[in-house]
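Recall that a protein's primary structure is simply its ordered list of amino acids. Everything else, from secondary elements to tertiary packing, is in principle encoded there. The following example makes that idea concrete.
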Amino acid sequence: MSAILQHLTEGTKKREEGLAMKARVTHFTRSAYKVMPWKNGAGSTTELFISPRGASVQSGFDWRISLARVPASGPFSSFPGYHRTIMLLQGEPMRLVHEGHGTHTLQALQPYAFHGAWITEGILSGGPVEDFNVMMREDLGQAHVDVHQVREDTPFPTRSAPLQFIWCWSGAATVEVQTMRHSLKEQESLLIEEGADITIHPESATSVFIIVSITPHSG
C-alpha cells in the first residue's frame, strides 16, 4: 500500500475516534503531467497522477488518473486486479466491446466502470477521441468519478471522501479547503488528502470539473 493510502487509512481511524485532521493539498500544473505510450503501444496517454509516486503501469501501482488519445479502433490494455472508470471527453461516441461481458457506448462526460481484466476493444464511430481514465487496485479501495458543469457564482460542495483529485477541464475556480483557498486554472489539478469541507467556487462563465474520490478499504 502506498504512503498516501496508508495515511488515509490512519486518518479514517482518527476521525472515527473524533480527532480532527488537517488537509494536505498539492497543486499540479500542466508541466507536472507525463506523456507516454499506452501499455500495449497502440496510443498515447497523459498521466495526471499515479500512486505511489514514481510507479508505472509496467511496475505496478495503487491508483492512476490519466487522459488518453485514441487514434483508431483497437484493443485496450489489460489490467487484471484493477477496477477501471473511463469517460469520453472529446469526439464521437466510442463503443466498448467486452469479450463475454457485453458492450457499452461511451457518451461525453458520462463515467463508465468495468473490470481491467476484461478483454476489451474500443470501436470508434468517427475520428480520434480523447478520454479520461481512472484505475484503482480492487483490493485497496474504491474510486468514484463525478462531473460538474457549472456557471460562474454557483459554488458547490464535493463528495465526502478521504482523498479527492480535482481536475479543471475547462474554466477556472477557487477551491476552498477547510480555511485555505487555492486558485485552479484550466487543465490544472489539486490532490486533497483529508480534505473535509471542500467547496468549489467557479470563476468562469462555464466551467467543467472532474473529481475523483478515493476511499481505501478499511482494515
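The longest strand covers residues 141-151. Confidence is low (pLDDT under 50) at residues 15-19.
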